[in-house]
Design a protein that fits this description.
The N terminus is likely disordered. This protein has 248 residues and is α+β, with helices and mostly antiparallel strands. The radius of gyration is 18 Å and the shape is elongated. The strands form 3 sheets. Strands 1, 2, 4, 5, 6 and 7 form a 6-stranded mixed β-sheet that branches. 13% of the residues lie in helices and 27% in strands. It comes from Nocardiopsis suaedae. This is DUF4333 domain-containing protein. Keywords: Signal.
């Protein structure tokens, strides 16, 4: 089982160096260190305006509301019950994917032009946030203060994804390398359930989580079950490449 993101910091090549190499994201992308999560100020009351539905057709929050609210700093579902009764609510039905679902980085669009260090860091963090969520949010965005491409330079970036916000602290480790850290990030329930259908071969599944739930990596606290009786805890990969399932 992969250790939690909160115990990992990895150095990564700048996104510029990965232009034209989206398929090699594991080699080109940074792996973030996740610290205590945070939600935007309006998450403690009224939800933000919902982003446009993603091209994948994944269900979002109804009636124009943002993602289901969770208390600040607590993105885990309270209903996960390993070894106990299945999570509540009805099963959600969908086709079993013929191939293992993966996040398509081509949805992010072209990489920034050479020589723009700050834009390249913004692009890499946006890639990571969307890949971690496993569903592309066309309204996702990352804004950084000006970053100097010098060893030891620091800065911060704010990322928004599916109505959630996270602040990334960035440390430049060389002319083309950097590290970053942030709080917990949201994952998509539709994407997790799609991957669980592939894992179990069952069309009827449910995962005990909001439409988007804040997690770190490894053991997320999310439980999935199928109508056939399969049960597993969700393990989110720390490099944003997908999920694994720890059978119960």
């Amino acid at each position: 089982m992969e250790p939690p993101i909160s115990t990992l910091v990895r150095r990564a090549a700048l996104a510029l160096a990965c232009a034209g190499a989206l398929a090699a994201s594991s080699a080109c992308g940074a792996v973030a260190y996740l610290r205590d999560g945070e939600l935007p100020p309006d998450r403690d009351g009224a939800a933000p305006t919902a982003p446009s539905p993603s091209p994948s057709g994944s269900p979002g929050a109804p009636d124009g509301a943002g993602p289901s609210a969770s208390p600040p700093g607590d993105g885990y579902s309270d209903g996960a019950s390993p070894g106990g009764s299945p999570p509540g609510g009805g099963f959600r039905t969908g086709p079993v994917p013929a191939d293992e679902p993966v996040f398509d980085e081509r949805s992010l669009g072209p990489t920034p032009p050479p020589g723009d260090f700050t834009a390249s860091v913004e692009y890499e963090i946006k890639r990571f946030v969307n890949a971690f969520g496993m569903e592309y949010d066309p309204e996702s965005a990352v804004v950084c203060g000006e970053l100097a491409p010098e060893d030891g330079a620091t800065g911060s970036c704010e990322a928004t994804y599916m109505g959630y916000a996270a602040v990334f602290d960035v440390t430049v480790t060389g002319a083309e390398t950097f590290e970053y850290e942030t709080g917990r990030l949201p994952v998509s329930r539709a994407a997790v359930e799609e991957r669980y259908r592939y894992h179990t071969g069952q069309e009827e599944v449910r995962c005990e989580m909001d439409e988007y739930s804040m997690v770190t990596s490894a053991s997320s606290g999310i439980e999935c079950v199928s109508a056939a009786g399969d049960r597993a805890l969700v393990e989110v990969s720390s490099d944003g490449s997908g999920v694994g399932f720890d059978e119960r």
